[in-house]
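Input.
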Amino acid sequence: MKVFFKKLLLYFIMAVFLADIFLYVSFSASEAREEVFFMTDRGQNVNRTASDGEKQTYNKSDTWALTDALGRSAQEPGRENSVREGKYALIFYHLWHNDFMRSTVLGDKKAPRNVSAIFEQDPDAASKASLWGPEISYHYWGEPLFGFYNLDNDEYVIRKHAQMLTDAGIDAIVIDYSNYCVGGVHNESSYNRAALTKLLNTYLTIRTEGGATPQVALLLTWDGNSNGPALMRFYKDYYSKNEYNELWFRWEGKPLVLAQDVAVSEDIKDYWTYRRPWPLYTPVDGPNAWSWLSNYPQEPCYTADDPKEMVAVSVAQNWSTSLDFMSATDSDGNYIAHGRSYVSGGDNKLLKNPVSSMYGSEYGANLQQQFDRAIEIDPSVLFITGWNEWIAARFLKIPDWARCSEDPVLPGGGFCDCFTTEFSRDIEPTRQGNLGDNFYNQLCINIRRFKGTGALAPAKEYPGLAFNFDSPDTGIWDEVGYVYEDSVNDALLRNTKGIGGSELVNTTGRNDFKLLKVFHNEENIFFYAETTRDITGKGTDGWMSLYIKTGDGESWEGYNYVVNRLAVTDGPLKLEKNLGGWNWATASDNIPWFCSGNKFVVAVPRALIGIDQSSFSIEFKWADNTLVEYCEDGSAPGDILKFYENGDVAPNGRFNYLYLSDAASGEKTDGSSLYRRIEPALTIGTGIAATVAVGACAGVAISTANKKRKNKQKK
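Output.
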């Protein structure tokens, strides 16, 4: 009997030992092999495959849906990841507004002057000197969506820009320093020290918070002899500081700078990869030169090893028959520069009004022709001009390099690089004319064409599974549904001064979306929103609103339905159906909802939004405190540009999340975004069960071995 218990104890010890090993391997393998895909708003989609301890990454916003105000749509993701490796998009960026406008503001009480607004008020403004600022004073071609901002102090705008450019797929901003250190002499007013420092430090903060920003590169003057002193100062003030290392855009293993190394000190010369700035709009004259503006059809910039390293893409060009001013006219008074609507080989309009709607500036025909050419060439890099130039000096004496120097100067003067809504090259959104956010969305659409898309798999239906609003248990969301992450710390507040001392205030930031989830059963689609802090603002219009696009019927900016647009304090929420424009009718006043702490859930009956088939797709967006400005009759104006400015939306801007259902294919496939989570308790339970099985097997094996040994000994 004692022998029996000794054997039993031995079997148990061995079983526990083997089970522990199994448990460790099982738990580790579950973490290593389980793939959890998030459609993120933090710079990339994250495919967590921890087999080698590293995260696999994908370009992040390439799974979102996007249709702009003109009906142009971005390519939607497929089941397979089509992101193309080794493709980069850079954009020209300006910090100069405060430093270059300083003397203008001091000398002109009406500054900042808006050229497009002047022409909108008086089409004959070019002949009236009294409407303009002093000679060589800077004028804005239009007003940015975020106002006449000063990047020296406006963190709100720097954060907005970083988010928008990252969402668009921009890998790096290239900051314009072509006016700095000309002749090799430092000039503090063109160094933009305060703005550059503010931008870099804000980018670091965003990254520390877990967000994403573009990388940074600099473009210096094309006079190579001036580049040495400039780079020495930039190195001393910025590049030599370790904290900024992660921000520099690296090319061939080193920070990229558009400059020449001919006059750079030997002790720092090898720090950068150089590309010679090419200021002409004709093909480059040799290898290792990059242009940022080029006439169609653009030719690639190249190196000895890469025949198509980079292609320039631009919104418009200050060119007529040769290099010119944007304000150039012909002998009949028609404006003739290559504006936003210009198409090489097209029937281009010659008009005397530089802000005429007849141009169709909002369609971006010039930019599209340039994108098409660049994507056809398929280089490694697209360099796009530009994002936020905004200002140009008023000349009364035109330099002789410009073709229009041969013509009499009009009393309104001449403007070189930007002039009006048609004759300018900024992509940043504006309410000026009909431009809106069309160029920004055109940028997003074309970068996705160039870089490819992420993958999105259909979600399965969960028959019989529902969120219980009578006895809420948010734990159900741990197991089911699509999961979307929204960038945090973007429900921003703003209180600063812009150019000319204007007060720029925005207090709408409130509920900061963090995590969004969706699942559906036979009858309902359940939507879940989670914020970074407890949800506030209950009982106000525009509180935790959900916009849904089904693609059927009338719509406002593509949205056919909205939940919780109007204030509700108690009782069910309203689902409204669009009647066209910002007009809505109640489709149901009985939408169940749950709100506790930082969690919010609604259930939308499928039948009420016209979804009766098993396979369907919808787009949706959460918004809080965005459309907060109301008309005199109390109705909201329905200005979608408020999605960029106010409160918080998920996803950002005009983007929507895409939710796909396919009853025939609910299984998770490689590259899908179907969320699954393995809880440690589940794995431990499996290990315990394995303990019993292993113990039993071990006991049987040992017992059998002992019997065989005894039998053998007997023989």
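Confidence is low (pLDDT under 50) at residues 16-59, 664-715.
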